[in-house]
Each structure stands twice: as structure tokens, then as C-alpha cells.
Design brief:
The protein contains no helices and 11 strands. The protein has 123 residues and is mainly β.
């Protein structure tokens, strides 16, 4: 049983920054990956960033490289997404997820999800 709770969403002007946080609890086994997905209205959910929990090795979607940073606090079972230089196209509901798959990149690879937090970037 894993519970994920996101926080930190809100509204910001283009060029601004937000930091999202995801606190995990109830983990019986260490997950290999923690990830952030987002879903904009009318679009499919897409992966934004992923981090290998043990090593801290990150992965970023091309659309956010150089602007977003994923990092973790191991002792707190918390993963963060620092979002800088935000653009209107970043507007979406952002979800935290965890997976034990070998190379998880799709929504179906992640069995546990948070409730989502809204990020709105105005122009």
C-alpha cells in the first residue's frame, strides 16, 4: 500500500516558478522510480520527469529540459519538481506516481498515483 500526496500547485505568470512536492507513505517495498506526469485539457497524460530513487538519476521530457528539476529527499520519502521559466503550455494537472518497472515511461507502468495538483501559467 502506497499513498502519494502532491502539493505546491497554483497559478503563476509566464516566466515564474513553482515547486511541487510529493510525499509518499505506507511503502512496503522501495519503488525503483518516482515520476511526475501532467495532463492538460483534451490531451493524454504525459511523463514530465522521472528519478531513479536509489541513484537519483533523472530523466526529463524534452519539453521541460533545462527548466524543470526533479530531486528527492530519501529520508522523507519525498520527491520534488522545481519548475522554472514556466510557460502557458505547462498548464496542466500534475500527478506524482511511483513504479517498480524496469524502464517506466507510460501511465500504465505506474500503479500508484497521487490526487493531482493544478498548475496554471498565465501569459
Amino acid at each position: 500500500q502506497v499513498q502519494l500526496v502532491e502539493s505546491g500547485g497554483g497559478s503563476v505568470q509566464a516566466g515564474g516558478s513553482l515547486r511541487l512536492s510529493c510525499a509518499a507513505s505506507g511503502r512496503t517495498l522501495a519503488s525503483d522510480y518516482m515520476a511526475w506526469f501532467r495532463q492538460a485539457p483534451g490531451k493524454e497524460r504525459e511523463i514530465v520527469a522521472r528519478i531513479r530513487w536509489r541513484s537519483g538519476s533523472p530523466y526529463y521530457a524534452d519539453s521541460v529540459k533545462g527548466r524543470f528539476t526533479i530531486f528527492r529527499e530519501n529520508a522523507k520519502n519525498t520527491v520534488h519538481l522545481q519548475m522554472n521559466s514556466l510557460k502557458p503550455e505547462d498548464t496542466a494537472v500534475y500527478y506524482c506516481a511511483t513504479s517498480s518497472n524496469l524502464d517506466p515511461s507510460l501511465q500504465e507502468d505506474y500503479p500508484y498515483w497521487g490526487q493531482g495538483t493544478q498548475v496554471t501559467v498565465s501569459s
